[in-house]
Specification:
With 324 residues, the chain is an alpha/beta fold. The protein has helices spanning 11-17, 21-36, 109-127, 142-154, 167-181, 237-240, 251-259, 273-278, 299-316, and strands spanning 5-9, 47-48, 55-63, 68-76, 88-96, 102-107, 134-138, 159-163, 184-187, 200-203, 225-228, 245-248, 271-272, 291-294, 320-323. α2 (21-36) crosses α3 (109-127), α3 packs across α4 and α3 (109-127) packs across α9. The chain binds nicotinamide-adenine-dinucleotide.
Length: 324
């Protein structure tokens, strides 16, 4: 019998560890640089699909620079909220990169929320104007929150234009973000008010195979940057075609999603975040470019954050040790 142990971290434990957004952005920056230099391993997500529009994905990755190896096993079931259950749930296993032994099993909801915001911030670092102050958010949920939190780490943000198809959600969002992040937040009544006049736009509503394509050409300002957290669901093909540089976080995975029926009408790709982080492909080159990234969410993002949580949890004595 082995006397090896692993650390179990519940959803509450992971949040209680208190990793800051700037640490997450830093870990992702190291990771995307390593990806751009070919030092990471991330096979494309295999998945199973037990119900209509539902998924359970396996997301393994290895980041030698962070000594991080492991896998996220994450599900999204769109009918869950109607049953009083979360849409997204799942677990992450962190392995010892030297021995392969499991070090920790942790809830992955907090990581998924935060690392997606951090990936938007990395895209914005290379593709947005550094003086960006006004952010339009369409979809005032978990991602609407974490994306703004992450952008605030890198940009001198002042004002958020918040649109949600549920007006009460936008109002709740405004109250919370104003208090927590000390930003002016204006709940707006139409999607266009959260796009036109903004320096950065984040769309974070539902992901749809057949986009509703609400955002039209001429809405995104010259010099603006957009992060398409909900894929191309919100964007008319003509509006995406206005981008000078259309990027993603991983080109192979984007091609895979295209085979699955997503991203059918996007413009040609300029670069992925690894190529931008290493300078192999240029980021923004003028104040007037319109730039877009459609990040898919990578296992690399998750595995960049997991070791931080494990180490800090150990230091703080958080979690439950279980026998292997
Ligand atoms: N790309 C990635 O890496 C990544 C990672 C995590 C989640 N996501 C996606 O991001 C999206 C948001 O996730 P979340 O966890 O914030 O969900 P959430 O349920 O917390 O929030 C979604 C919000 O969007 C609102 N909404 C619905 N339809 C809308 C519309 N047409 N216009 C504006 N608002 C609308 C809802 O009322 C809700 O407030 C989902 O599509 C999710 O699948 C992407």
């Amino acid at each position: 019998m082995s006397d090896q142990q692993l650390l179990y971290l519940s959803q509450k434990d992971v949040a209680a560890v208190g990793i800051g957004m700037s640490e997450i952005i830093e870990a992702l920056e190291i990771t995307f640089r390593a990806k751009g230099e070919g030092r990471t391993e991330m096979p494309p997500k295999p998945g199973i699909h037990p119900g209509v529009d539902s998924f359970i994905h396996a997301m393994p990755a290895y980041i030698p620079d962070l000594k991080s190896a492991g896998i996220k096993w994450v599900s999204g079931f769109p009918d869950n909220p109607g049953k009083g259950l979360p849409y997204i749930s799942g677990l992450l296993i962190l392995n010892d990169a030297d021995t392969g032994l499991p070090l920790a099993v942790m809830d992955c909801v907090w990581i998924t929320a935060k690392r997606t915001g951090a990936a938007t911030a990395i895209g914005a670092k290379y593709l947005a104007r550094p003086d960006s102050q006004v952010v339009g958010v369409l979809g005032c949920g978990v991602q609407g929150r974490s994306n703004v939190e992450a952008l605030k780490v890198l940009f001198p943000l002042k004002r958020i234009m918040a649109y949600d198809s549920d007006a009460d959600a936008a109002k709740r969002y405004a109250g919370e973000i104003q208090a927590r992040l000390d930003l002016e937040v204006e709940p707006v009544k139409t999607p266009r008010e959260a796009v036109s006049g903004c320096d950065i736009v984040v769309t974070a509503g539902p992901i749809l195979k057949k986009p509703h394509a609400t955002i039209q050409s001429g809405w995104l300002e010259e010099g603006a940057f957009a992060s398409l957290v909900d894929f191309d669901s919100y964007w008319h093909p003509d509006a995406m075609a206005e981008a000078n540089k259309f990027c993603t976080d991983d080109i192979d995975q984007l091609r895979l999603y295209q085979q699955m029926g997503y991203f059918q009408k996007i413009p040609p790709l300029h670069a992925d975040l690894g190529e931008l982080a290493t300078g192999r492909k240029p980021g923004r080159q003028s104040a007037t470019e319109r730039n877009i990234t459609a990040n898919l969410g990578l296992a690399l993002d998750d595995m960049a954050v997991a070791p931080l949580i494990f180490q800090r949890a150990r230091e703080k004595g958080i979690g439950t040790w279980l026998p292997l």
